[in-house]
Amino acid sequence: MKVMIIGATGLLGKALMHEWNGDQIVGLGSRDVDIRDASRVMEVVEASRPDWIVLAAAYTDVDGCESHRELAFAVNRDGAVNVAQSAVRSGAKLLFLSSDYVFDGQKKSPYETSDARNPQSVYGRSKAEAEVRLLETLPGCCIARTSWLFGTGGKCFPDTILKLAGSRPSLEVVDDQRGCPTYSVDLARAIIELCRKNATGIVHVNNSGDCSWFEFAREIVKDAGLKAEVRPVSSQQMARPAPRPAYSVLSASSLHRCGSEMPTWNNALQRYLKERNG
Ligand SMILES: NC(=O)c1ccc[n+]([C@@H]2O[C@H](COP(=O)([O-])OP(=O)(O)OC[C@H]3O[C@@H](n4cnc5c(N)ncnc54)[C@H](OP(=O)(O)O)[C@@H]3O)[C@@H](O)[C@H]2O)c1
């Protein structure tokens, strides 16, 4: 099978490039193809003729999206549509990465794939609109929604916490947002499985279990053997430009229906710390 990974230079992209063995892989970063350029997208896809395209490229700065709305929609929605149109034309299958931020966070139980989208941020809206447009353009595509991604291939929450905890006696972390931390390696492995199983439709792909950012930070500091004290604060005390859902736990039932399962986030964190320490 021939696979094109668009966004191969990102956090998830690097894990996909590392984990994907046994198939022919073409990995592209933004220097190879800017997904806002429809004719360039068509050109690279036509030249490679992949069986699968995994679209991991996005403008992922959630706060930056609030002040760069046009860029957010141009990359995350219109860029995704460009890729879907090239998939239609070349007969490729498409797996698109989406986000828990398509939900408003008002639920008190895990979000199912059938729950209504109601994004609260520009980033969330750009992803939600991309999902709708992709399902119209290529109804057989696979949309893998993930959340709270971490890994050694780029900037991420555990890396920030480890740096802060190593240089300060205490740190404050929000305790009123709940979600599912997801290790890029586990997400990459699940994506590979989904492609090999020819998955279609929306699937929630995240490590199992859930926590608040505060609980996640406390576990990171403990597992790393650091002494810093982690204190819980509210989102109001730590105001950021983009609103985040208070609760964006994604149910695993859609992934189970595909015959796959994810390790717990605590287990994933321990493997991440080992990988980070080389
Ligand atoms: N990070 C999270 O917590 C999280 C949570 C939920 C969902 N997701 C989704 O998961 C996917 C992977 O996220 P990530 O954290 O791995 O992203 P990332 O580390 O920020 O990497 C983004 C990737 O997109 C590429 N890119 C950006 N703008 C582009 C453009 N205009 N044309 C082509 N490529 C472009 C970048 O290329 P260069 O580096 O070469 O510029 C890079 O390879 C994204 O769809 C994201 O929305 C992420």
* Overall shape: globular
- Give the uncertain stretches in residue-range form: none
What does the main sheet amount to?
A: 6 strands, parallel
Mean model confidence by pLDDT: 98
Strand percent estimate: 15-25%
Structural class comes to: alpha/beta
Task: Give the tags.
single chain, 278 residues, alpha/beta, 6-stranded parallel beta sheet, two-stranded parallel sheet, 42% helix, binds NADP nicotinamide-adenine-dinucleotide phosphate
Kindly describe this structure.
With 278 residues, the protein is an alpha/beta fold. It contains 10 helices and 12 strands. The strands form 4 sheets. The protein has a 6-stranded parallel beta sheet with strand order 2-1-3-4-5-10, sandwiched between helices. The chain has a two-stranded parallel ribbon with strand order 6-9. Helix 1 packs across helix 7, helix 2 (38-48) packs parallel to helix 4 (69-90) and helix 4 (69-90) runs parallel beside helix 5. The longest helix is centred in the N-terminal third of the chain and has 22 residues, at 69-90. It is globular. It binds NADP nicotinamide-adenine-dinucleotide phosphate. NADP nicotinamide-adenine-dinucleotide phosphate binds at residues 7, 9-13, 29-31, 33-36, 56-60, 75, 79, 97, 99, 146-149, 154.
